[in-house]
Design a protein that fits this description.
Layout: E1 3-12, E2 15-25, E3 30-34, H1 41-48, E4 56-61, E5 64-65, H2 70-74, E6 76-79, H3 91-101, H4 107-116, H5 130-143, E7 148-152, H6 160-177, E8 180-185, H7 188-192, E9 197-202, E10 205-211, H8 212-218, E11 219-225, H9 232-235, E12 239-246, E13 249-255, H10 261-266, E14 272-277, H11 280-287, H12 292-300
Parallel strand pairs: 3-8, 3-9, 6-7, 7-8
Antiparallel strand pairs: 1-2, 1-4, 4-5, 9-10, 11-13, 11-14, 12-13
Helix pairs in contact: 4-5
């Protein structure tokens, strides 16, 4: 089971919201889609939810197009940034509808989740707060036990305790049932400890798509202090993204294979040195330096 996005594009009039996007969404994974407002994240999610059809390119699930694919829709849940419910219904009535729509829906799970999150399933949803409505959406989605869950800014409006609880449940489902999660957000810090892999969108295009472990293992920061600064030939031993000198202290951002890095550094006889990991914010800043505005908005918001 895999979703394959190949050169998918979607326009509205002359505005190209999604432009030739290629991605894979694998079972048992959590993929974070990051981008500032207007980057195209919601449009891509709606393409994945088969609400929109692509203008060009394809999106396949198990080798078949997802658009108007009833099997796909029975195994996929989409929680929009503003969750939708029928008018004048309570959560239990929505659960009845979900049970008829999704073959794997579990009333046992539904009852457990309403009790865990302290939600009265007989209260009309329109009377609930924004955060409680989002909890209702999660209760229904998790109870449906989908194979694919698409989430658009899913944790907005949730208090920290509920956010932590829901994240733990989702992680357990990914681990135990090989659920595939595809999560959009403009909050890098929110995603760093939640996702296995990350993509960044900007103006409809995916600028970068990498496994988090690969990203973090590929770049590091070197801090070195010397009695006398080494010659420029010393730095040719590294793939340097950035270098700063303050007196006799040199800081370098380095990408590449670090197997022999300590041997290379000690050959220059530094007074001291340290090899430090970068935060995800720093990695994206260096990887996508030419798109500073996009990265700044992801980090700041």
């Amino acid at each position: 089971m895999m979703i394959e996005i190949r050169q998918a594009s979607k326009s509205f009039g002359t505005y190209k919201a999604v432009n030739k996007v290629t991605l894979d969404i694998k079972p048992g994974s959590i993929h974070g889609l990051l981008g500032s407002n207007g980057a195209g994240k919601t449009t891509l999610l709606k393409l994945l939810a088969a609400i929109y059809n692509t203008d060009s390119g394809v999106i396949h699930y198990n080798g078949k197009s997802i658009f108007e694919n009833l099997n796909y829709k029975s195994e996929m849940i989409f929680i929009a940034d503003i969750p939708y419910f029928f008018k004048n219904v309570n959560l239990k009535e929505m659960a009845t509808f979900y049970k008829e729509t999704f073959p794997s829906f579990s009333m046992k799970r539904f009852n457990q989740l309403t009790e865990l999150l302290n939600i009265n399933p007989l209260v009309r949803i329109t009377k609930l707060s924004k955060g409680m409505k989002r909890q209702c959406a999660f209760i229904l989605a998790i109870s449906a036990r989908p194979k694919i869950m698409l989430l658009d800014e899913p944790f907005d409006g949730l208090d920290p305790i509920v956010r932590h609880t829901i994240k733990n449940i989702l992680i357990q489902d990914v681990s135990n049932y090989q659920t595939a999660l595809f999560v959009s957000s403009h909050n890098l810090r929110e995603m760093e400890d939640f996702c296995d892999s990350i993509s960044i969108m900007h103006k409809g295009e995916v600028l970068l798509a990498r496994e988090l472990d690969d990203l973090k293992s590929d770049v590091c920061k070197l801090q070195m202090a010397f009695k006398e600064l080494p010659l420029e030939t010393f730095y040719k031993n590294f793939n340097i993204l950035e270098k700063n000198e303050k007196g006799r202290v040199v800081t370098c951002i380095v990408r590449g294979n670090f197997d022999n890095i300590e041997q290379t550094i000690t050959a220059a006889h530094p007074l001291m040195y340290d090899i430090l990991p970068l935060s995800l914010e720093e990695i994206f800043t260096y990887e996508l330096g030419g798109y500073g505005y996009a990265i700044e908005n992801i980090i700041v918001e």
